[in-house]
Design goal:
365 residues; Rossmann fold; 15 helices; single chain; alpha/beta; 5-stranded parallel beta sheet
């Protein structure tokens, strides 16, 4: 049995059917126009404090989750950038609570505490409180957010309970707060104020937030009542943060189903969408560039398209149904070819090997 090194590969470039964030080897291949559209939203926010709501939609395996993970894990040098990646809530009856806690988890309580403490210590107290009142639209929640930065261990532990599970009346009194988080409206107000702390007003802090919400097609399984409530939550959050905030909504839906997205999001959110970015099935040319970039990235030694050739790449792509050429499907085919080549002790992949592999592949599929 041959190895990847025998095939002139450091690793299998097509190994991932889903992004492998843990190993942090995400590499963008092909699709330069798609990448450029996402980058424009980033640069517009970074340079101009712009606010965007982007709709990313397309077929399964089209690269939406990969794109989210690629940009979220990208090493931005600016310390004032906050990147948040969450999946859409699964339970429509608890959507707001799940959404709220997912964002807290993505930020982490320790980071929230540290950041609020920094702002409290470096900002005029009245100015900071007034800023929070404006963004949270509540004096009580403004005061609660300030307490997240407390250096008192008891207060800090109580505030952790406050945001995650709620507190008793006695604990609320100990905190000096009159209200707990009880309704969806409360959660949105609190979250709006909290996220605004990572944006600032350009004087005491000048930050940027990029929020990715993946798998939003799950809203299809909500009852109409539930997805209308969640749509209202999104609308309020988008409206409460006036600038330096970009959100990406990832939907997996087929061609012609844009109206379904509009129905689920509701007219209010739909009308606020800045860009609609379509993740289409790849053309043969798109697929070829994608494959070539991945192969060259993984090569042990630069040598054309080794262990493949241009003709072999075209041959394998040609086996994929034209209405199903997506990054995930390409990875599935090419990874299988590489495994077959190693199992049969080959050091290159030519058309005869592809023909032999095809017999086994068709039997398994």
């Amino acid at each position: 049995m041959s190895t990847l090194n025998d095939l002139n590969l450091r690793f299998n470039p097509f190994r991932d059917l889903t992004p492998d964030v843990a190993n942090n080897h995400l590499f963008w291949a092909g699709l330069p126009d798609l990448k450029a559209r996402i980058e424009r939203s980033y640069s517009d926010c970074l340079n101009n404090k712009a606010k965007h709501i982007n709709l990313n939609w397309g077929p399964y395996g089209g690269g939406k989750t990969f794109t989210a993970n690629y940009f979220v894990t990208k090493n931005f040098t600016q310390p004032n950038i906050t990147q948040i990646y969450i999946r859409s809530p699964k339970d429509g009856t608890k959507a707001t609570d799940e959404f709220f806690k997912s964002i807290l988890d993505s930020l982490s309580f320790s980071r929230i505490k540290s950041h609020i403490e920094f702002l409290v210590n470096n900002t005029n107290p009245d100015d900071f409180r007034n800023f929070l009142i404006t963004r949270a639209r509540s004096e009580e929640f403004a005061d609660a957010i300030i307490k997240l930065g407390s250096t008192d261990p008891e207060i800090s532990n109580l505030m952790r309970s406050y945001v995650y599970s709620g507190v008793t009346k006695t604990e609320l009194k100990k905190l000096g707060l009159a209200r707990d988080l009880q309704t969806d409206t409360d959660s949105v107000k609190f979250l709006s104020g909290l996220l605004s702390c990572f944006v600032g007003d350009g004087t005491f802090y000048d930050g940027r937030i990029f929020l990715w919400i993946d798998e939003m097609e799950d809203l299809i399984y909500y009852s109409p009542k539930n997805y209308k409530v969640f749509s209202q939550v999104l609308r309020d959050l988008f409206d409460y943060i006036p600038n330096s905030f970009v959100s990406f909504l990832n939907f997996t839906l087929a061609e012609g189903e844009e109206k379904t997205i509009e129905l689920i999001l509701g007219g209010a959110v739909w009308s606020r969408i800045t860009r609609k970015i379509r993740f289409k099935e790849l053309t043969s040319q798109d697929a070829t560039l994608y494959c070539e970039d991945l192969i060259r990235h993984a090569q042990l030694n630069a040598n054309g398209l080794s262990p493949f050739t241009a003709n072999v790449i075209q041959s394998i792509i040609g086996l994929i149904s034209s209405n199903n050429i997506t990054p995930r499907e390409i990875n599935r085919y090419f990874s299988s070819v590489i495994t077959f080549a190693m199992q049969n002790n080959h050091t290159t992949v030519d058309l005869s090997i592809v023909a032999a592999w095809q017999v086994d592949f068709q039997e398994d599929n």
